């Protein structure tokens, strides 16, 4: 009782010092932002044997100075106006004491059982908050007053922790299915992280709080990592794709999982966490690191050629373009320095293997194409016709293989496309030389075949496709381009020579008549030459247009050349101007007849144009 006298009798007019302390404590009790652990009043408790005189004395003092107060303390911690009655003032002081006692009683921490009930109800943040209060209450109580042991609290913490992190581990699955449950788990994590930060920020941390900091954020990081690895390993979730090897199927699963899961993180999970958790970066780095580690193991193992290409496709194309530049992920992933899936040295090693295998693949395919064509020649079957021209699939198949190799390299990277281009040109040049040798062998050994000439024409027509491809796709600086075009010219001219050989043989005796007969009969001889030539020309119309024009040019050149030769071999004596004029007219007339004949058969050809050949006109 003696201790309470200063509280009631001393202090300036208005609010006494001790009364102010009570007000402040009462305000804290009424402040919702103050934690439950901090809501314990420090006002001294009144003794039951106070005298009525002391209480009355106090009441008179309060009433005497009430007019000077701006407000008086009410039972809920607010201030009353100066016009309040003495009875109300009396209630105010007593109310403070009673309210403080009541609030002290009400702020008692929840029991372990009550907190467990909150956990069972999935109210994780509430459970976390009350555990923090209970934890703090232990630190300010004596051992005799301790009703709940630290061991009990730790047991509850473990249960809460297990439930929270079991949910956080399945965040990707629960984000859409049970977002409220996931939010409860995240909020509990946030409460613990906040309390750790508060503890660490204290100048003199409570030595009794040995369990702090609890480092739930570190546990969260480990949980996310475990979740990522589990999902990336579970290949059963990705349907098997036909024609994919085991390595290829694993790559497909990891890439698909990473893209789909990060999309969920960006769209649904990120918003549940505060910025300092760096959720997107954390998930992205963990997925990337796991993907990269598995890719490295695969790259260092024994791989088939198609798996090497697939691996490089992920490194150069699929991962940087389809995942990192995905419209949903790009903005977030730009903030993270993920790097390449493989070290540059390992990428170079894989690229070297790929270039070698690609070149070998193209070479083998070209060899098989040629062998198939040779076997077709031996069957002595008429070649197919395409738009009225004899046709062979050899050029199409060969070019498709060359172009396919180039296209596959270009798809990986522009650098690989440039690197493989001369390799493919070299293979094409070697293939055409083999083709030329096989063609020459066929010409010499199969002259008696029924479809000998149609097969020759079909192979001449092949050269057009090869030439078009080389001129459009092989760089001028490539040394193999000259070799390719030269070999094609050899094949063309070799074919032309065989086709024209019989015609020229039949024309030879007719041309001899120019030297044996008089010039007056030259018109008849020229008509016979044109008639014989016309008969053969009809067989050449199955050549593609450029080659048909070329063969007509060859015929025209040959006719003119033979005519001039015969003209020069004939011994004539033209003494009079009339005879000379007559000869000139005959020569001019015959030349015009040849020109007209050739021009009429190929209207668009220029008779002065040199054909694709090595022979001089």
UniProtKB/TrEMBL annotation:
Q: What InterPro entries does its record include?
A: EXOC3/Sec6
Report biased composition (Polar residues) as residue ranges.
Answer: 28-37, 70-79
Task: From the UniProt entry, list the residue stretches annotated as the region Disordered.
Answer: 18-88
Basic and acidic residues bias spans: 18-27, 49-65
Which gene holds the coding sequence for this protein?
TNFAIP2
Protein name per the record: Tumor necrosis factor alpha-induced protein 2 isoform X4
């Amino acid at each position: 009782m003696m201790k309470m006298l200063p509280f009631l009798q001393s202090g300036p007019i208005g609010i006494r010092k001790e009364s102010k302390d009570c007000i402040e404590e009462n305000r804290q009790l009424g402040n919702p932002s103050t934690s439950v652990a901090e809501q314990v009043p420090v006002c001294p408790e009144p003794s039951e044997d106070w005298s009525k005189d002391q209480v009355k004395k106090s009441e008179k003092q309060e009433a005497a100075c009430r007019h000077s107060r701006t407000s008086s303390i009410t039972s809920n911690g607010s201030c009353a106006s100066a016009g309040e009655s003495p009875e109300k003032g009396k209630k105010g002081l007593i109310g403070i004491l009673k309210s403080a006692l009541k609030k002290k009683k009400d702020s008692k921490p929840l029991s372990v059982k009550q907190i467990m009930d909150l956990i069972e109800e999935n109210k994780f943040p509430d459970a976390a908050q009350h555990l923090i209060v209970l934890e703090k209450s232990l630190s300010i109580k004596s051992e005799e007053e301790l009703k709940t042991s630290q061991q009990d609290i730790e047991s509850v913490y473990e249960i809460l922790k297990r439930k929270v992190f079991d949910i956080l581990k399945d965040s990707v699955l629960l984000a859409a299915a049970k977002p409220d449950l996931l939010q409860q788990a995240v909020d509990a994590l946030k409460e613990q992280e906040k309390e750790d930060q508060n503890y660490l920020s204290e100048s003199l941390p409570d030595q009794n709080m040995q369990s702090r900091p609890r480092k739930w954020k570190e546990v969260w990081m480990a949980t996310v990592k475990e979740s990522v690895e589990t999902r990336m390993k579970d290949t059963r979730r990705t349907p098997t794709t036909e024609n994919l090897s085991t390595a290829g199927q694993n790559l497909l699963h990891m890439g698909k999982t990473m893209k789909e899961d990060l999309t969920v993180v960006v769209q649904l999970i990120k918003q549940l966490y505060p910025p300092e958790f760096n959720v997107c970066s954390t998930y992205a780095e963990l997925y990337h690191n796991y993907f990269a580690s598995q890719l490295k193991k695969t790259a260092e193992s024994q791989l088939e050629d198609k798996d090497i290409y697939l691996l490089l496709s992920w490194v150069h194309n699929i991962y940087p373009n389809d995942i990192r530049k995905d419209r949903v992920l790009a903005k977030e992933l730009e903030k993270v320095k993920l790097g390449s899936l493989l070290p540059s040295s390992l990428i170079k090693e894989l690229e070297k293997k790929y270039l070698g295998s690609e070149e070998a693949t193209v070479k083998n395919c070209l060899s098989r194409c040629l062998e198939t064509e040779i076997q077709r020649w031996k069957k002595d079957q008429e070649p197919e016709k395409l738009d009225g021209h004899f046709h062979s699939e050899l050029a199409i198949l060969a070019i498709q293989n060359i172009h396919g190799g180039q296209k596959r390299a270009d798809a990986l990277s522009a650098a690989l496309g440039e690197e493989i281009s001369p390799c493919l040109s070299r293979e094409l040049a070697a293939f055409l030389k083999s083709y030329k040798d096989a063609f020459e062998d066929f010409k010499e050994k199969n002259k008696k075949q029924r479809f000998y000439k149609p097969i020759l024409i079909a192979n001449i027509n092949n050269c057009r496709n090869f030439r078009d491809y080389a001129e459009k796709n092989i760089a001028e600086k490539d040394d193999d381009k000259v070799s390719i075009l030269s070999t094609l010219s050899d094949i063309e001219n070799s074919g032309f020579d065989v086709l024209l050989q019989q015609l020229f043989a039949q024309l030879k005796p007719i041309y001899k008549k120019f030297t044996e007969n008089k010039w007056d009969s030259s018109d008849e001889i020229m008509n016979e030459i044109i008639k014989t030539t016309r008969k053969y020309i009809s067989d050449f119309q199955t050549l593609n247009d450029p080659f048909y024009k070329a063969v007509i040019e060859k015929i025209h050149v040959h006719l003119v050349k033979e005519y001039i030769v015969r003209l020069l071999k004939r011994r004539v004596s033209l003494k009079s101007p009339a005879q000379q004029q007559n000869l000139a007219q005959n020569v001019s007339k015959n030349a015009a007849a040849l020109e007209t004949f050739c021009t009429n058969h190929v209207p668009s050809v220029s008779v002065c144009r040199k054909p694709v050949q090595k022979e001089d006109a």
